[in-house]
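P.,

For your records, the input lines for the assembly:
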Amino acid sequence: MIYVVIGIILVLVFWVISTYNFFVSSKTRIKASIQEIGNQLKRQTDLIPNLESSAKGYLKHEKGVFELLTSARKQIAGAIESGDVNKMAKASSAISDLLPKLTIAVEDNPELKADTVINKLIDELRDTSDKVMYSRRLLIDLTADYNVKRVSVPSSFVASVFKFDELKGLETAETGDHVTVSSDEMKSPKVNL
Amino acid sequence: MKNIYEVRLANKIKSTIIVVLFFLFVLISVYFISQALGIYLGYKPGGFGFLGLALIVSGISTFISYYFSDKIVLGISGARLATNKEDKLFMSVAENLCIGAGLPKPKLYIIEDSAPNAFATGRDHKHSVICITTGLSDKLTRTELEGVIAHELTHVKNLDIRLMSIVSVMVGLIALLGDWFFRISWHGRSRDNDDKNQLGAVILILGIIFAILSPIIAKLIQLAISRRREFMADAGSVEITRQPDGLISALKKISSDTEALEAANKATAHLYIVSPFKSNTLGQERTVNKLANLFNTHPPIAERIATLQKMS
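Structure tokens returned:
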């Protein structure tokens, strides 16, 4: 009988320890993933001037695109300096917003379309915006895992005893354009190739 | 539905069972073969010498096949390391997806073959390998490639790779050896030298034993691998990329490609994202009966696509 009781207690202790370790390690991983976003943004700011100078000749007539590229870089650099997660999140979409505009400019101009430098520029921009997107996703997934475990039974007992607070992860405003869907957006997109 | 920790635990347990079985199999076979040879050469039967020899051989072979399973698989498949110059797309896609999946970057390998296919191998997150054919990177778009590589990364994440590669090396190689012995004994029959006849008889017996073992082994591979694994990796791929369309059209492209992958064989076929033997392609699927389906290591492509379409 006594052994059964000791056995149950041991199992419980083991479970508490492993749950506690889950919370601690995912907190660390979340911190690391925020740093990863900064890291990827830093890579972006280093990359853009390079791309700018190599594509300058080709994009002479597309001043608008060029200015966007420059302002995106400044925004990202500012965000990294501030070290604020939400500023970083905002800046990180700068490049992905720019991509469609660049693609349109290239589509309108057959000469640019055939050019390897421009295609490489687009590839690089897509690659770097993907990297930032995936680093944001990791943060989102990790915080979701952590927060779900924090509130679901039975791990919530451990969370409340050891006071693991809810983590915000990427902050997005809960009201505004992006949470409503207009009827236009409900239609499936048409693509002409 | 099991969660990822349960999947990992199940994979670890199964891997351990296979390692132990392999150790015992080699131990027993080496013991009996050396005993038989000993008697043939006029030594006394029994004794600890034979057991010691068997222990050493099985210990070394188990160690090698556990720690070098990825290298053996890559060697059998004739893969080379991916380079930044030639395989830029593959490398950047894999790097990006690793950031999203929160995994260390695996080693990336290429098989020079125009048949599109891919597999993952290795023993844990830090020692993982993803290998694709040049056909895959040439024929697929970036989005499709992302779907395929995310599928392989899920195999890494779930530790499927450990189980799948030791199954290839430990169980699969026995099946391959069987084929090999059988072929030798077949060719060896024409010679009528006395000495060679005796050796030929031994090889013939070994061949028959392996020929009997081979289908049992094939069945074992299926039991260990379980086709649900592929569905789970498909789901994991969608979890990483958030878009099933890429993987759907990639699966369609890979399965409708008529070229067979020469680098694949019985031991490694179950590793690939789509069966390299082209038995379950989209076109043939309707005519192939259910019985044939039972013996496939891969679930039918149409079923996988249907499951993926439900997610979008």
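Two observations worth noting. Chain B touches chain A through ten residues (CB under 8 Å). Residues 280-291 of chain B have pLDDT under 50 and may be disordered.

Regards
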